Amino acid sequence: MNSFQPTAERQSVLENKSSSEVKSKSVSQINGHRARQDFSSVYNRDLLPAESGEEVTKNFLLELLDILFSYICKSFKRSSKVLDFHHAHQLKDGLDGFTLALPDEPENLEQLLVDCRDTLKYGIKTGHPRFFNQLSSGLDIIGLAGEWLTSTANTNMFTYEVAPVFILMEEVLLRNMMSMIGWPEEEGDGLFCPGGSVSNLNSMLLARYHFFPEVKKKGMAALPKLAILTSSHSHYSVQKSAAVLGIGIDNVLLVKCDERGKMIPAELESSIITAKGAGLVPFYVNATAGTTVYGAFDPLNDIADICQRHGLWMHVDASWGGGLLMSKRHSAKLNGIHRASSVTWNPHKMMGVPLQCSAILVRTKGILQECNQLRAAYLFQPDKHYDISYDTGDKTLQCGRHVDVFKFWLMWKAKGSTGFEAQINRCLDNAEYLYDKLQGRADFQLVFKSKPEHSNVCFWYLPDSVRNLQVGPERNNKLHTVAPKIKGKMMKEGLTMIGYQPLGDKVNFFRCVFSNPATQREDVDFLLDEIARLGSDL
Amino acid sequence: MNSFQPTAERQSVLENKSSSEVKSKSVSQINGHRARQDFSSVYNRDLLPAESGEEVTKNFLLELLDILFSYICKSFKRSSKVLDFHHAHQLKDGLDGFTLALPDEPENLEQLLVDCRDTLKYGIKTGHPRFFNQLSSGLDIIGLAGEWLTSTANTNMFTYEVAPVFILMEEVLLRNMMSMIGWPEEEGDGLFCPGGSVSNLNSMLLARYHFFPEVKKKGMAALPKLAILTSSHSHYSVQKSAAVLGIGIDNVLLVKCDERGKMIPAELESSIITAKGAGLVPFYVNATAGTTVYGAFDPLNDIADICQRHGLWMHVDASWGGGLLMSKRHSAKLNGIHRASSVTWNPHKMMGVPLQCSAILVRTKGILQECNQLRAAYLFQPDKHYDISYDTGDKTLQCGRHVDVFKFWLMWKAKGSTGFEAQINRCLDNAEYLYDKLQGRADFQLVFKSKPEHSNVCFWYLPDSVRNLQVGPERNNKLHTVAPKIKGKMMKEGLTMIGYQPLGDKVNFFRCVFSNPATQREDVDFLLDEIARLGSDL
Fold first, then answer.
1. Hey, is the C-beta of A62 within 8 angstroms of any chain B C-beta?
2. ipTM of this model?
3. Cβ contact A205–B244 (<8 Å)
4. How far apart are CA B376 and CA B486, in angstroms?
5. Which residues in A lie closer than 8 A to residue B400 (C-beta atoms)?
6. Which residues of B are less than 8 Å from A508 in CB distance?
7. Those residues with Cβ within 8 angstroms of residue A290's Cβ, 6 or more apart along the chain or in another chain
8. Among A301, A380, B78, B499, who pairs with A336 as Cys (CB 3.0-4.6 Å)?
9. What is the pLDDT of residues B277-299, one digit of tens each?
10. Residue B388 DSSP class
11. Which CATH architecture has domain B156-404?
12. Where are the domains of chain A?
């Protein structure tokens, strides 16, 4: 017997009726047991901590759960849309009573519940099995439960004092990740950061401090002219970090890649030598394990050899590829990662942890603390009654730090390492399936021939009007417009979502990525058919 | 009639029994209507997207809600503890079956629910009316609802494409905040960042780019030796930002404050002149609106005059004080803030928004984009079918960005501007009440005499053993040990929490701050009595 399932009648209200219609329906039944409370004369002030606010709070949270659960179910249903697209001006003008403007006087809780429904209605179902648009996708129920608990605990990672359990969970998670990387038990440290870009920024900051500790006090004025090296396919956060740190993006030397998007080691070494000859001091090499567009893995061992030879810091940006370390079948693609000085790894990408969850891992113990600490007396009192080595807040660029670990910890408990492995293998199987299908279709063309290493598959759709043209600039110009036009139509129809981009001399092509365990082969079939349906007459 | 309230029997199970006892109780009744599902042979794989996983998912989320709601109710109950302190080694050894270690094989959902209970049990109730330890406190039900919805939507702020509603909400919130600051409608831009430190870092980055746009490409090597100015009472993130940007903390000139903790304008001007004389190029002044320890407001108009005279960027760190702009009674303390070039304002502090919620606001339109953009083609395609000015992702240091706006937007709807005003006034009233009480007690001493400007009240507790000593080094040494000893005992007893620190020549003192609307005068009375009870025999 359950008390929560909405009745068919209520379900239809929730899904199909406009805001005002829902508002007028002030009483409804949840499975006949619970009379739905009318919240139209109930306000924020009636909720806890108001005296006798427990009942109202409970009923309000149950209503909210009703809305969220209905959304969750729809997210997984292939018959529901991925999105219901509206232009910004439409949403700003107000649709069916959904207004973004902020009031002077409180609105009632009924209106707030309607706003919650509308917010979800006009948003994007990133957990939908046919959402292929981003490296992060899926909706993990355990991860979600973890986030709900995290926000209920509403605390901060700066000290053991206010986050004892979460601080210890962070330690356990980092230790497990470092062990997957292959660092020995007595080495390594790390932190969860607000996204891979901040993790990468941290790595460059640590490397600079490692070679030039005087920079913390004296600034870049005391240093020679630095250079860093990264591949032309690497993530733009490497350049962003160089801009922030005052190294300058002109001093980020982009190393050539092969056709597959992998850094060419010989090119790296010659770039290093050239840079030195030009009076620059290279100190940091970023290798990518899983590039954003091609999903390529740089040859880590070769790069490590070069870094060793020249005494450089080797960072591995495994934001996207780190998850493959969980899979016996795929982890060899990251061979050599244990030789890195630092690693970025985002469980919110390939491991399906809800956003945000990104770790910076660094091999040298103590350097995070030394590089970043400022010993603010009001947070990090040395005369506390407990072991202050757990006050991790002084290791970060931040002060307050969101708790990003609990959801990941809970998911690991729920799946085990073997569960993550199976989930990742399934995503990569989907990529191979797509790759095989594309090879069998004349109206699609792969951007590069080799089998996917990660779950990225890059391809063009070729409408007849393109296929009938000879290879050359005219064909390229025409082809360049195909993906954006299909994407525009696709978003208006709302049945699936996939990204596109140009890269180097390649005109706009689609990039499909798989990180959602809900996606199955039928969804891959659907994607191709949908692209062909939307694009055939272009 | 309700279906969710736990029975008295179950309540006692949830609150008092150890993990193993709870586990053995596999069936329980929620108010007699819903038979509790036994999850001990149910696993993650049985949840959505598993076929026919809806029922299990619903029941699991209801169980979770049960746990969270029980915690929420306890958070507001004065009879419950703020914390149940354990040392790290105790938690790591495993308490009552609560183990942090991560398994290879999946654990069942019953165990996960127990883990959720235990995580909350050993954590800190930051929403408790007697938690005074941090600038962020309280547990706002609407904010919490907002966070739950945000994590269910699980999307990313980088493009309009994947976060249309949230991108527009961000715009509306920033516009409202800028209007409270007093910037005209046609000026201003901003972003929500992962905490005040990152917001402050952003402001310094923008200022550097404003004066020296070549830094983005060429790095600091192309620039003169920069200096920045901030008060000795300002937040340590100013120094941290200078370290990150390669300016160096030696080039952060700390301006003297008066007894009350406010920057002395004449000292600022003479520091600027001295710096210039020493060949430095000052370009950025950080003024604080609400310092961390004293809650002091720097004289913004005087500082703005000086910045104008010397052509410097004026940043106002109103992380803590920004909330006072919502109050007609208190906003005058920030007079002059409209003259700032940039402002940091953390709604997760004084406005009670759940962590994290911090905004950087900048007066010059377009500079965020120019300074930070790198035009990654795979995210920010120029040939999209919608208005790409809403793709805000290229304005940030980050790539992916957590959705921090929805909870704030929903709270504003629920309270209205007037509700925030009342909430903030109440917190400041509590501070005045504490201030008045302290003046009437011989066993306490204020750190400075003047009335609180923000909700910070700083004081020493004076046990007899200290009061009997003459003012001098011996008394100071003794007094320095009092607060840490009381804090240690206080955490073990767990009935309340307050922070302490030394500052300049002042030995360890307590800092009480009020940002929790649940706190009432009786809690202030309790705090003082508890300190005296724990400290009288020291």
1. yes
2. 0.94
3. yes
4. 54
5. 136, 195-197, 348, 355-356
6. 381, 383
7. A296, A297, A318, A319, A320, A321, A322, A324, A350, A454
8. A301
9. 999 999 999 999 999 999 999 99
10. G
11. 3-Layer(aba) Sandwich (3.40)
12. 8-125, 188-367, 411-535
